[in-house]
Amino acid sequence: MDMVMKVLRLRIKLKNALSVVVERRVGKQKLIELLEGFSHSEHYVKAAQRPQHWTVWFGCVCLLHCLLDADHLKQQLLRVQLTTSPSETPSSLLHHLSTILISLGNHRPQTRAGLLMLLSAWLHNCPLAVAQFISIEENVQYLTTHIDGYGNEGSEAENQIVRGLIAFLLTICLVFDETGVDQSRKNALSVVVERRVGKQKLIELLEGFSHSEHYVKAAQRPQPLAKSAQDLLLDYHFTKFFKSVEGSASTLKS
């Protein structure tokens, strides 16, 4: 246990150091360029299957920091193509992340929280990313189905966070899909969400999310207040991002 805590503290220090680097425009650009040159995702997929769920959480948060206040990098990240084996046809990083999320079902709330935070930041104010994400029916099916689900793992408080993050990602898909190329698709998404979830429920879940204990604690300071690796659920910078765009949910009332 002592060794686990030492590794956790080291990873937190590395995350904080990386956050300082990626706050600079050049640092963010370099990290995205490194990803563009990394075409094999087998190690990432294996990492997602490890029992140490927080390793995936840290990876998602680090990439999340690259995308915050850097909308110009979001389309660039869409060009990252990955494969899980040499014989497979490459597909986008966005597709890989959503596939991993779907494969988790209602298990592993910490891993799902990391993935949902990253996807929310990526799709925000990036119509092309939103269009690619919602064009895959399984993604919309997963979000509209599991927003009501109670996870087989984790506490009620943890599952409340996951449901709030799902509501946030759905809201981003509804509000920021503004390509104007295929309005029928956007309308169809709105109809599906209204029928399966209800826009009022999205608003209620977002309000509950922002008032939850996990959110309040995460918003207090940049360095995580974690006694163990399992306590890591929300990132400080994500809470600031959420607060800055939370008002967009008000457009759902119209």
From TrEMBL:
It comes from the Eukaryota. Keywords: Golgi apparatus. This is Vesicle tethering protein Uso1/P115-like head domain-containing protein. It is found in: Golgi apparatus. It comes from Wuchereria bancrofti. Coiled coil: none annotated. One of its GO terms (biological process) is vesicle fusion with Golgi apparatus. Residues 55-246 form the Vesicle tethering protein Uso1/P115-like head domain. GO terms for cellular component: endoplasmic reticulum; ER to Golgi transport vesicle membrane; Golgi membrane; Golgi stack.
